[in-house]
Structure formats: C-alpha cells, structure tokens
Amino acid sequence: MAFDFTVTPRVADWRDRIAAFIAGTVVPREQEAFAGGVTDELRRELQRAAREAGVWAPQAPAELGGGGFRFDETAVLLEEAGTSLLGPLALNCAAPDEGNLHLLDMVATADQRERYLKPLVAGEVRSCFAMTEPPPGAGSDPAALRTTARRSGDGWVLSGEKHLITGAEGAAFSIVMARDSESGGASMFLVDADNPGFVVGEHARTIDRTTVGGHCRVTLADAVLPADAVLGEPGRGFAHAQVRLAPARLTHCMRWLGAARRAHEIAVERAVEREVFGAPLADQGMAQQLIADNEIDLAAARAMMWHTAWQLAQGSRGTEESSRTKVFVSEAVSRIVDRAVQLAGGMGTSEELVIGRIYADIRAFRIYDGASEVHRMSIAKRVARRTRERLNP
Amino acid sequence: MAFDFTVTPRVADWRDRIAAFIAGTVVPREQEAFAGGVTDELRRELQRAAREAGVWAPQAPAELGGGGFRFDETAVLLEEAGTSLLGPLALNCAAPDEGNLHLLDMVATADQRERYLKPLVAGEVRSCFAMTEPPPGAGSDPAALRTTARRSGDGWVLSGEKHLITGAEGAAFSIVMARDSESGGASMFLVDADNPGFVVGEHARTIDRTTVGGHCRVTLADAVLPADAVLGEPGRGFAHAQVRLAPARLTHCMRWLGAARRAHEIAVERAVEREVFGAPLADQGMAQQLIADNEIDLAAARAMMWHTAWQLAQGSRGTEESSRTKVFVSEAVSRIVDRAVQLAGGMGTSEELVIGRIYADIRAFRIYDGASEVHRMSIAKRVARRTRERLNP
Amino acid sequence: MAFDFTVTPRVADWRDRIAAFIAGTVVPREQEAFAGGVTDELRRELQRAAREAGVWAPQAPAELGGGGFRFDETAVLLEEAGTSLLGPLALNCAAPDEGNLHLLDMVATADQRERYLKPLVAGEVRSCFAMTEPPPGAGSDPAALRTTARRSGDGWVLSGEKHLITGAEGAAFSIVMARDSESGGASMFLVDADNPGFVVGEHARTIDRTTVGGHCRVTLADAVLPADAVLGEPGRGFAHAQVRLAPARLTHCMRWLGAARRAHEIAVERAVEREVFGAPLADQGMAQQLIADNEIDLAAARAMMWHTAWQLAQGSRGTEESSRTKVFVSEAVSRIVDRAVQLAGGMGTSEELVIGRIYADIRAFRIYDGASEVHRMSIAKRVARRTRERLNP
Amino acid sequence: MAFDFTVTPRVADWRDRIAAFIAGTVVPREQEAFAGGVTDELRRELQRAAREAGVWAPQAPAELGGGGFRFDETAVLLEEAGTSLLGPLALNCAAPDEGNLHLLDMVATADQRERYLKPLVAGEVRSCFAMTEPPPGAGSDPAALRTTARRSGDGWVLSGEKHLITGAEGAAFSIVMARDSESGGASMFLVDADNPGFVVGEHARTIDRTTVGGHCRVTLADAVLPADAVLGEPGRGFAHAQVRLAPARLTHCMRWLGAARRAHEIAVERAVEREVFGAPLADQGMAQQLIADNEIDLAAARAMMWHTAWQLAQGSRGTEESSRTKVFVSEAVSRIVDRAVQLAGGMGTSEELVIGRIYADIRAFRIYDGASEVHRMSIAKRVARRTRERLNP
After folding, report:
1. What is the pLDDT confidence band of residue D146, given thresholds at 50, 70 and 90?
2. Contact D346 B132 (CB under 8 A)
3. Inter-chain residue contact A207 with C206, CB threshold 8 Å
4. What is the pLDDT of residues C6-18, one digit of tens each?
5. How far apart are CA D132 and CA C8, in angstroms?
6. Pick from A70, C363, D241, D373: most CB atoms within 10 A?
C-alpha cells in the first residue's frame, strides 16, 4: 500500500487524553505561571498529575516508562501537549530534557543510563545542554566551539563560557560540548551541577517566560571530570549532536504547532463572539483571511512535519527534510500567532488571553536549533551539490 | 500501522517512465509550441508517443485504458507529468479533459459513457466545461448562473453566454451548466460541438500560451438538445460540479507543482554554472535563500497535496482540505516560479529558458477553480461554524 | 518651487541635541526601566534632564514652552526621540499625553487650558484618554460606545466601563468619551483622577513594559462632573477625537520609526562584529538581505510619513493619508524589528540588547489607533466611492 | 522653509495634459499594439500626436525641445506618461532612449550632440544601450565585461557578444560598452547601426510585448570605429554608466508606477461594478484588502521616489537612495499589479483588460537596471561600512 495517514486507535486515545489533561489540569495553572514564572514546584505538581492521567512522556521508550510511540505518532501527541505552554513540561516532553533523554538513550553507557537517564525520564531531575557560547564562540556555526577539555590524569578539565543555556538554573546535570585536546574534535561530557567548576551565572533577560530554569550564562571554571564523564565517543561530539538535533528540531515543531493552534483557536473564539460594525468579526472579509491563512498554515506545517517525522521514524537521518521543516514550521507558527494577535484585537498582546504570551515565547524558535538562515544555507548547498553532480556526472 | 509515505514500486516505475518520456519526447517539442501555440496535431503526435511509452492517462480507470492509480498515487505521477507544460496534454491528464473524464466516469449513463467518455479517454476527441459566465453571471459565485435550460418537448433549449471556456475551440463536446426551468436548480448538459446553437466565439487574449483550444467566449444560442443530453440528475448540477471540482483542484495542484519544480530546477542549473562577483551564483547568500525557499515551498506543497489526495482517495469529500490545499499550492507555485525567474536573471522571463512561459501560464491558477479569496471565505466560514458549535453546543 | 526635503538648521540642531540627549542620558537608564518598569520617579528625573538639555516637548506650541515646530519638522524630531523606548516620555512627547496636549490646545476653554493643559505641557502631571471599552463596547468600531453621560442638574453623571486605558494609573486626569443623553452623540469630558467615581482597576498583563501607568481597566462609577467638565462641543466627541487621532497616529509612527531604527542599528553593529562561518555576519548574503530590507523599509516609511506630516501641517485633515501611513509604518516597523531580532541571533529576543524589548513593545501598534484592518477598510471605501463617482458622474 | 510637496502650476498643467493625451490618444491604440507588437510606424504616429499636444519629452532639456523639468517634477509627469504601456514611447521618455538622451546630454561632444543627441531628442531615430552580455560576461556584475575595444590606427575595433539589448532592432545607433585595450578600463562607444560590424541577431522571446525593437542579441563583429566614436572619457565607461543608471533607475520607477496605478484603477473599476455573493466585490473584506494594499504601496512608492528624485535634482549622486528606491518600487509595482490581476478575476490575465499585459511586461523590472539582489548587496555593504566606521572611528 502507498500513502497512509491513518491515526491508530492508541495514538487517538493518547491524543484525546492529553487534550483532556491539558484542558482540565494544565490550562488552569497557566496564569500563575505567566505571572510568577514556572517554578520547579509547579513542574512537579503537573508532572505528578500527568503520570496519574496516564499521559507521561509519550516520546520516551516504553521500557523507560514512556509512551513508546513511533516518531511520527509522537508528532500527533506532542502537538497536543503543546497547546499549553506548560503542557510539554507537564508531560516530560519539553526541551531540553526531551532531547537529552533521546541522546542519552542513543549513546549513554549502562552506568550513565542508570545515573542520568533514569532519573531524567522519571522527572526526578532536570538537565540542560550546553553547546552555545557567546560570540565569537559556537553559535550558528558550531565549528567555532571554544570551550576546551584537556586531559588531566584519567579525567578531563573543562574550561570555557557558555550562554543561553536553557534550564541551567536548577538542572541536576548538563551535557557539555567541548573541544577536547586529544581528538582535536568536539566531545560531549556529562557534568553534574554540583561540580564546583560548573557555575551557573546570569539569566538572559529574554522576552519569553515559560521556560523553567532560564537561559543562563554557564562558566566551565576548570571543571574537573572523571574519565567516565565522556558521553558517547570522544571526538564525535558533533556527530552525536546531530543525533540529538534532527529529532529535537522536529519535537520543537510539534510542540510549537500546538501552541500556534491554541492561539488561533482562542482568537477565533473571540472573533465569533465579538460584533464589530454590525456583524460578527469572524464573518468579515479581512478577519476571514486571517482565519483561513491560519488554517492553511497549520495544515501545511502539520503535513510537512508528519512526513519528516515518518522519515526519521524509518531511520533516515533526515537532515535536509528536518531543515526544511524546521524553517517552514518555525516561520508558519510565527505567522499564525501574529495573525491570532491581530484577530484578537486590543487584548491580543495580553497574557490573560494567552496569545500575547505565546507571541513573545515563540519568537526565538526561528533562531535556536539552527537559525532559519543557517538551515536555508545548508539546504541550498545540498541542492547545488546535487545539481552539479547531475550536470557533471 | 500509522503513517506511511512509501511510494509503491508500480508508482515509482510509472513516475520514472513519465520522467523519461517528458525529457526525451515532450521537452524537445516545447519551443515550437511556445512559438506557434499548441495545435491539435502536436497534441495527437505527443499522445500517440505517450501511449507507446506506456504512460497513458495515469489517473484514468484501468478498465478505460488508463493507469488506474489511486488518487494519492496520481499525485506523484501528475506532478511528474507537469514538469513540461505540454506533459499533461501528452498523457491525457490535462484540464479540462481530465476533470470531465472523471465526472463522466462518476455520473454518465451507459450511452453517454460510450459516446463521450470512451473517445475522450482514448484521446480521440477533446472536450470543454462551460460553467463560467461573463459578469454578472456565474464566476466566483456559481449561484449567479444565468444560462437557462427550458423544456421543449422531451428535450431542452439552452440559452446564455459563457466565457473563458478553456479548450472550447476544437472540442468535440462541452459539458454545459445551466439553470433549468423545471427543477429551478442547475443542471449539466452534454452539448455536441456541431450543435448549431453551440457557438464558439473569440478567445480571451490571456497571457498564457500552452492551452489547446484557447479560453473562449461560447454562446448557447437557443441550442436544442435531446432529452438524454442531461448529465447526471437534473437539478443537481452544483452537486455534480463538486464531484468534479474537488479532485480537479487537486490535479491542477499536482500538475502545476511539477511545472514549478521544473522552473526551479532550470534556475538552479543556471545558478550553479554562472559566476557573479567571483563566485558561483548558487553559492551566494541571497541566491541560496531563493533556492532554499523554493525547496521548502515544494516540500510543503507536496506534503499537503499528498495528504489531501489521500483523503479524497479514502472517499472523503475533502472540501475543506482541498480548499486549503488549492490556496496554499497555487500561491506556493507562484512564489516558486517568481523566485526562479529572479534567480535566472536576465533570461528569466524568456521562453527559451521555459521559466518565462511557466511564469505567465501559471498566474491564472490563483483565480480559476475558485479564487484564493473564495476558498479563504469558505474555509473561514467552516471554522467559524465549528467554533460556534463548540462554544454553544 | 516644487518639492523640497531640506531639513532647516533649527530642526537639524534640535535633532542632533535630541540624539545626544538620548545617547547620553536616556539610554543609560533603559535597563533599570526594563527590569523594574517605568516609574513616575524615573519619568520626572528624565524630564528634568530633558528641559535642562533644551529638548523639551518639540511638538508643543512655543507659547506653552514647547519647541513650536511644524508637524513635518516634528516628524524628524520625534523619530529621534523614539530611538529609546524612554525617549518620548523624557521629552514629554509620548502617548497619550502628547495627543491629549494637542487636543486640549485645539478645543479647551481658557479655564481648562489653565487647569489641565498647562500642568500637562509642563510635565507636572500625566493624563489618559479613555475611549476604548471592553467588548461589546467601543473598540475598532467607536460607534459601539456604551459609556453614558446623563444630565444631573447643571452637571453630568458618567457611567460605564473602559479598558486598555494607557497611563490611567497615576494620571492626574482623564479625557473620557461617553454617549451623552442630551445630544445623543458622543461627548468628551475632563475627569479628575480624584473623582470618587473614577476608579482605576487592573492592568492588562500585556507583553509591553515601557509604558508608565499601564493599560488599565477604568470604571466610571456614576462619576459626578460639573458643567464645565465638557471638553469641546457636546455631541461632537467623535469629531474632536479625529482632531486628536490623525496627528496622534502620525506621532506614533514617528516614535516607533525611531525605535525600529534603533533595533536595526544595534543588530547591524553586532553583525559587523560577529564572525560566522569564517566571515563577518554582515557580509553574508542572507544577513545583507535583512540589513538592506530594513534600510528600504526605513526609507519608505520615513518618506511616506514626511509627506503625510506635511499635509497635516498644511491644514489638510489627512484622514486617508494618515490611514495609509499608519498601516504602512506600523507594519514596516514590525518587519524591521523582526529582522533585527533575527540578525542579532540568540540574544535578539533579550532586553540586554534592547531589541527584544522593542519587539514585544511594538506589536500592539498594529492594533491601537485603528487596527490595520480598520484602516484598510476605510481606505478601500474611499477609493470605491471615488471610483463610483468617476464612473457615474 | 522645511519640507514642501507642492506641485507647481506648470507641473500640474503638464500632468493634466499628459493624462488627457494618454486617455484620448494613446489608450485607443493599445489593443492593436498588444496584438501586433509596437511598430515604428505606430511610434511615429503617437510621437507626432504628442508633439502636437504639447507634451513632448518632459524630462529633456528645454533648449533641446523638451519640457525642461527638474528631476523631481519629472517624477510626477513620467508617472502619468506610464499609465499606458505606450505612453512613454509616445512622449519620447521611454527606455532606453530617455537614458541615452540624458547620458549624451551629460558627456557628448558638440559633434556627437549634433549627430546623435539632436535626432534622438526629436524622435527622428531610436537608439539602444549595449552593455549586458551573455554569461559569463557583464550582467549583474558589470566588471565581468568581455567585449573588447582595441586600438587600430586612430580608431577602434570592437569585438564581442551582447544580449538582451532592448530596442536594438531598428535603432539608428547604439552606445556600446567595451573594455578598451588602452586604458584597461571600460569605455563607451557610439556605433552606427549601419556599421557592418554591428550585427543585430535574434530577439529573446521574453513575455513582455510592448517594447519597440525587442531585446536582441548583438554581435560586435570586429566593428571598425573612428577615433571620435568614444563617448565621454576613455576608461571611464563605468563612471559614465553611473551617470546614466541612477536617474534611469528612477525614470523606470516613475513609468512603472504609472502602469501599476493604471492596473489598480482598472481592477477597482471592475470591483465596484461587479456583484458577487450579493454585494459589490469592492465592498467585500478581502477585496478591500487588495484595494487598500495597492493604495498603500502606491503612496509609499511615490513618496520614496519623490524624495530620491529630489536628491538627484539637488545634484546628489544618490546611489544608495536610488538603489533603495529601485528595489522598493520594482517590488511594490509587482505586488500592485499582481493584486490587480487577482481583483479583476477571470479576465485579470487578459490583454483586453490591459492588466494581463502589464503583469507580463512589468516582471523583468526587478531584474534589469540592477537585480533586487544586487542592489540589496550594495545597500548592505554601505551600511556595514558606515557602521564599522562609527564603531572604530
């Protein structure tokens, strides 16, 4: 058989239960989180409720206590989880833990699984991923990595500056990318937060509000690590990062698509109830255009995302597809939320209506996990290479 | 199993043979068609070659001599056919015959099948579909239909003015939409071209060039029709039109996506070969952006189209999905071809490079088969209705 | 002589002094305002400094202590003031005081000038403008006004609900729009903040941060007003609002254009200093596109704004021009700041770089003072009316 | 005095007479030109009529028989001329003659003025400008110039290939750019069309139709030229080209803005007359959006164009301003005409409604006289340079 877009009963069941959980349990806690920030206490409460509701970690392997869904099935479920900005956190499928969990599952040793993966998937701890550095270090261009790992006895000493490390404050451990003196390449290290050389500094004062643990400055102040702190193969840090990044890009797409859908739905609800110039706003041409464009963007983004998620589920590395999808979805959700703000009118930028918060929080998605421009460059290079090969076989 | 995007071996085989046929047989005839117009002679030559190449009418039922592919499989094949502006005609999957063929297959009587469907699917004749009228008649708003069918004995007399009737010049017959005096609703009629009351007038001088038979004024000058000229049920013309329109919109998307891909590929070929400011054009940032945006739009349009085609293949009416997809794809292909023109530079608007011709020919797709605005209105109305029902159950 | 775009020496002198004042005095206070909000204490400090720097209230009449500049000259100066989000407040040319000041200058009685205009222009007090109401009241459609003013003896009693009243908290007085029982039309009233019937309620929790006094709920709880509280002619409230709105739209454009220019400049500064993939970011094609598009949008917005400001300075009501300009500039500045965020990369959404704050604060400008959609409707209606008159003279 | 946008009585008088001439004399000849191409016979007829109507060559110096208007005044008049695709030709202010005329007026010797400029300004002959070469020659990157001029006795021998030379067929002479063997730089040469080494080849089959003399291949087949064939200073060809290009870009903007306005007006006329879904199309929201966006783009493009034309009139080289304006106006007119097509519906791509022809003819404007990408690159480089100088004084 050729194409099939059937949602299986198990996926449909989880999707519906996630929807009910978000509506009944998560949404009622949103305003306090917007006002006071997302605390670890709130996180634990919501996570406990999610486990009780049987919607825990849909993307995580079943043997680790997660839903054990295939990646394309996950697309359906994480979109649903994303309809509240707190939903992914509640279900333990939020960045950066979700990506770290996946990476650990792929490359961690048995000991590392026991020590880092198990508590992470259980929601006992949080983690962070420390790759980005302030200029002129690793950012859009990972090769500019400046944090170093030098041998010291059996172990390593890490030194360098990281910034915009999401969730660093309060994380139990961090995966740190550093240039190691031995391989000359990049390696990943597991660093416990209580390592005295792991210093969490200032939070960047960004306009998003619903990330637990902030976007922090992190200093590796000659952090001494044991030999077994290396995650995966030494020197293959960038390759391992790809293992994390292609699916992580997609899970971002899934979650943010849910958030965009939520903004759209709230805006349409207002538009059908509000009368302007003698008719419901939703029945007026320019409002209809905003509504229809949102429906179209949602459908296009979802179709593209499903296709790419299926490719990854088939074992494809999906680099090019995930680049294309990341650019399209991140820009589509920006458009959708922007239109929702406009449709909602005067209260469109408010947190009361939720849309304003989504608008501010979603902006950075066009930048992190590869800025649109970096993905476009990468896509174009691949097309050019293929075209050259076709013309000059 | 959940999602599946596997292309079956039979589809892949046809796709590859269509690609070879387009490249080897159709493309070499493009320039003469651009210069002198598409004649029926050229059509017959190309169609004969297509039958010999075993790529005839992929979308048509197997029992009628076509490929017998499912609608989502057709999506793959018609995209390939569309990579030449003459491809769909050569494969007998071009508008308006392809849509008429489908409609006849759905609603024609045994006699009508014999008389109209068989020669049409065999490529012996061409046909047209006469619905659109000059203002203030049926256009974006089909309900404004003014052509009338009044009873006269057993038969009917049709009177009215149609315009922009694609392929009318040289068509063997036309399906004509008229308001019938009996049901008060709209009915469809099969009108032979040699009916003295079927008068083909001037061609609209539109900027497209590759449609055989023009976009013609057609006068129904009290055309006398026998009783069995009614196609489908009397009074259910609009319902039958929907049978034709939802898939016809999608097949337009398939073909034009192929054309857009072709324009993109030609432009990229030039961009890798051309040096500007000391480097290949394809390696420069703004050119990379044009290239990447085209890749992204192609992938998004294709994913959305596949999903909607699958829904139609499952028996869904797919009105809303096909509206969304028609708007997105028609606007995406416009963007893609526009970028291809820009990337190709000075020769970008020329027929030599083909791109210029695609640019001019593709423009009307955002208008026919439902202008973007009409689809958006329809999409928004459905969303508003659903939202009202949700809020006030 | 025909066109002239010469900036006079006096304008150039003020512009340069404003620039120096913003850079030297206002910018250093931004971060504390972003962190803690804009207090009246900070406002007073900055205003004192502005008076000392000789850049006080450029738009206000000279006889009131302002700069006395023509409206098109004001365009140059308020753009400069807008380069800090605190600049307009410091120079006493911020909304809503600036618009109220202009309105009072046009229609206030001698007593009202003494009591309200003089302290306002001197910066001794702040004010607010209470027109917008929660749905289904006055919003995009002012005619939906529900707040009432009924006669009571010589005076009036005002009752109703307002929301999103910018600056209400801490304002000394408000101009309140209400439907008066006598004229049946709308009238404006001057209401002292200490009137027991003037109740300032909750702040809308919107994503902007740099407005002093919030966007508040205001209840007119049977507020008793004396006879001389009417501002302008009774029943002509909407006409007076137009006196305020057309120039107020433009001054918003001027200030936000400055803010957008600032965001752009900061982003370019980073882009020239930052190396990515072996070259300065600013020299790479897609970054060049962001930079160039910003330059183009800035120039187009400025040219259009100057033209409209000149027309208003000539005494034209400029309704259509100011609608066009408001839509274009509000959308252009959104694009510009969005590109600046993207160009600045990971820190682009942060307050440290200022751009993030501008991004969040500027969003509502496409909604207030007439949403883009309302202006577009109004523009199209005028064009349609003119076209009908031309066709059927 | 500061800004002034007053249109002087003389400009207003010419503008109104041009409008009347276009409507009364030029528009009635459009359809024959669209059908049969623009012949030199039609050109001569229209030009005779223009002289009689007193609207001849508004941009040309008065002492040469033109209108003698300042460049910013010319902006008003050429926009009016551009409202018919044949208007600029009729008034002798069309490309490429208008630019050649300006260039000759700036740099030609007395003899050259007599021999080339006088008949050109009188409309006795046409000319062309041969700079562009097929890849890998001069195109977006003029420095890639490959046509050579080598000394031969007193004179020169020109050899090379040009393409897309507008108006070459039937031109009396050409200004040819070549790399001269003596200076090593580029020089301009006046080449008579009857020079046996000046060979006009095939017309590019581009989708535009209203250019007299096509876009031709031109071969310089060892064309022997006398010493006095050099135009301007040897070796300063690129500098002279700038003299031509900055104003020529602007005059393109002026003319195309007129064409876009015309398309918009025709579309609005249809929209007010056409009823769809029970109401005039022009009164429906999405149509209003198309109409309003066109009004906004027209106003923004005009304001920007006036400003830049004024700067050029003041003697500024205006390189950066004319780049910004060329990009904005060329893209704005594309958007405007595209919206006009959409608004006009089914006949929107037809020549009968004129809009279809404008749509096809206007596309190349985003490519010639500097593709949008080339101008953006140039704009961004200047901004980056200025920013670097500011940061490191």
Report:
1. very high
2. yes
3. no
4. 999 999 999 999 9
5. 43
6. D373
B359·D207 Cβ contact <8 A: yes
From chain B, pick out residues whose CB is under 8 angstroms from the CB of A282: 380, 383-384, 387
Fold of C242-391: Butyryl-CoA Dehydrogenase, subunit A; domain 3 (1.20.140)
Assigned CATH class of C9-121: mainly alpha
Question: Cα separations (Å) of D244 from D18, D143, D237, D315?
Answer: 25, 17, 11, 14
Radius of gyration of chain C (CA): 21
Tokens standing for A327?
A: 């650019």
| Residue D1 in this model has a pLDDT that exceeds 70 | no
Per the prediction, chain D carries an average pLDDT of: 96
Task: Give yes or no for D276 touching B (CB within 8 A).
Answer: yes
pLDDT band of residue D246 (cuts 50, 70, 90) is: confident
C3, C272, C301: residue with CB nearest D72: C3
Q: List the alpha helices (DSSP H) in chain B.
A: 9-21, 30-36, 40-52, 71-81, 87-90, 97-107, 110-112, 118-121, 237-273, 285-313, 319-344, 355-362, 372-391
Say what the pLDDT of residue C274 is. 94
- Find the DSSP H helices in C53-193: 71-81, 87-90, 97-107, 110-112, 118-121
Average pLDDT, chain C: 96
CATH code of the domain occupying D238-391: 1.20.140.10
Question: Which segments of A131-274 are extended strands (E)?
Answer: 148-152, 155-166, 173-180, 186-192, 198-203, 215-225, 230-231
| C residues 44..73 contacting A (CB < 8 A) | none
Residue partners of B216: CB distance under 8 A and separation at least 6: B128, B163, B164, B165, B166, B168, B169, B200, B201, B202, B203, B204
What CATH topology corresponds to A127-231?
Answer: Butyryl-CoA Dehydrogenase, subunit A; domain 2 (2.40.110)
Judged by a CB distance cut-off of 8 A, whether residue A140 touches chain D is no
Beta-carbon separation of C5 and D311 below 8 A: yes
Asked if B281 reaches chain C (Cβ–Cβ under 8 Å), the answer is: no
Chains in contact with D, where contact means 3 or more Cβ–Cβ distances below 8 Å, are: A, B, C
B376-385, C237-246, D49-58, D361-370: least confidently modelled range: C237-246
Chain A contact probe: residue of D276, D277, D281, D286 with most A CBs at under 10 A: D286
| Alpha helices per DSSP H over B170-318 | 237-273, 285-313
Domain boundaries, chain C: 9-121, 127-231, 242-391
Q: What is the pLDDT of residue C124?
A: 97
Alpha-carbon gap, residue A163 to A168, rounded angstroms: 10
* Contact (Cβ atoms closer than 8 angstroms) between residue D289 and residue A285: yes
Q: CB contact, 8 Å: D283 with chain C?
A: yes
Q: Identify from D283, D284, D291 which residue to disrupt to test chain A contact, counting A C-beta atoms within 10 A and taking the largest count.
A: D284
- Residue pLDDT, tens place only, A253-281: 999 999 999 999 999 999 999 999 899 99
pLDDT average, residue stretch B237-266: 94
pLDDT in tens, A269-313: 999 999 998 999 999 999 999 999 999 999 999 999 999 999 999
Which of B 323-362 lie inside 8 A of A, CB atoms?
A: 324-325, 327-328
Residues in chain A: 393
d(CA C70, CA C58): 9
Nearest to B349 among D208, D273, D276 (CB): D208
Report pLDDT digits (tens) over A130-181.
Answer: 999 998 999 888 889 999 999 999 999 999 999 999 999 999 999 999 999 8
**Can B127-231 and B238-391 be said to share one CATH topology?**
no
- Write the pLDDT tens digit of every residue in B299-345: 999 999 999 999 999 998 888 999 999 999 999 999 999 999 999 99
Amino acid letter, D192: D
